[in-house]
Amino acid sequence: MRITAGIPRAGVVRTALAALLVLALAGDVASATPSTPEIDSVRSQVHEAQRERDELAALAELRGEEYAQIAAVLSDTKAQVEGVRIERAEAERDLALAQGRLENRVHGMYRNGTIHLLDVLLGTTSFEDFLTRVEWLRRIGDSDAALVAAVREARERAVAAEQTLARRVEEQTALRTQAEAKKREVEAAFARQQHFVEELDAEVTRLVAAEEERLRREAEERARVAAEEARLAAERAAAAAAASAGPGSETRSAAANDRTFDPAALGPGNPAAVAIGMHHLGVPYVWGGSTPTGFDCSGLVQYVYRELGISLPRTSREQFRVGAYIPPDRRDLMLPGDLVFFGYGGDPGQVHHVGIFVGGGDYLHAPMRGQPVQVHSLDSRITNRGDFVGATRP
Fold this sequence. Notes:
Layout: H1 9-27, H2 37-110, H3 117-122, H4 127-217, H5 219-243, H6 272-278, E1 290-291, E2 294-295, H7 297-307, H8 316-319, E3 324-326, E4 339-343, E5 351-359, E6 362-365, E7 374-377, H9 378-385, E8 388-393
Helix pairs in contact: 1-5, 2-4
């Protein structure tokens, strides 16, 4: 005979829940993470420290974008410097040629001694010969003047080229110093905050261990009263489960920005970007890096899409302006290969990080200093940091 034949289904469930609760409380009372006012206080400090650390991480990413911008300017400056060097070399060649021509002219005129105007004119045999010699002297004078002007122009170009080169070198040095200073500042701040978080985590671990020991000593007493409380606890759990079966929480709405959402503009997507990106898992993070020897976030995205024949700007802030826009509350439209963007403080006007959506709620990215290219949960980042500002499909 089946004992439960006459028991309503809900009663069977409550009975089973009660039995499981008794076993759980009696067998492993201390399995749940303990909590005390002291532990809660330190945990609160940990959460605040982690929030500040994440803020610094976002700021570090922002500084990384600024570094990338400066690196691009430095690259342009170096190209300009090379152009100035070519210009200087051309000016120096012109100067040498003009000087050589002038020296040849002087040597040709005076190699047999000084030629005086009176000697030339007295040697004429006719009036027509006289006029011819005068015109000849005038032309020689004009030619010499032109040679002198050419020498002067070449010299001025050489001087101007040298001055331009000096200014470019000064600009390059100043930009490099600025970039290095910002990099060191953010790295130092992040390191200090990370150390502080680790100290607080260690303190929480110590307090939890002490509390677990106290709970283990109380396990026998808790097991004795567990049976009496099991039925009420099961009923409360069932009621709570029923109450939680209502509508889900609202989806986080998109932060205000000037990107226009047009579903009709979405193309088929670029799933091949995921396969290419996955080949670079484990590549180290490098400030301003855009090659397989080291990437930053936007450098990885630019490299992957270049492999697909798609040209993207260098920084995440510029990449956010390219392609069809998908707002944060339309993640159902996202496809593997779409680019996901994060803004400082959730502000789409301050995009500081980018990754490649791989599907299944995950994305591939180059996180930050000390963390290589890897896959992270997009859902977790949205929950913990709330800085997702949307996606694009290049």
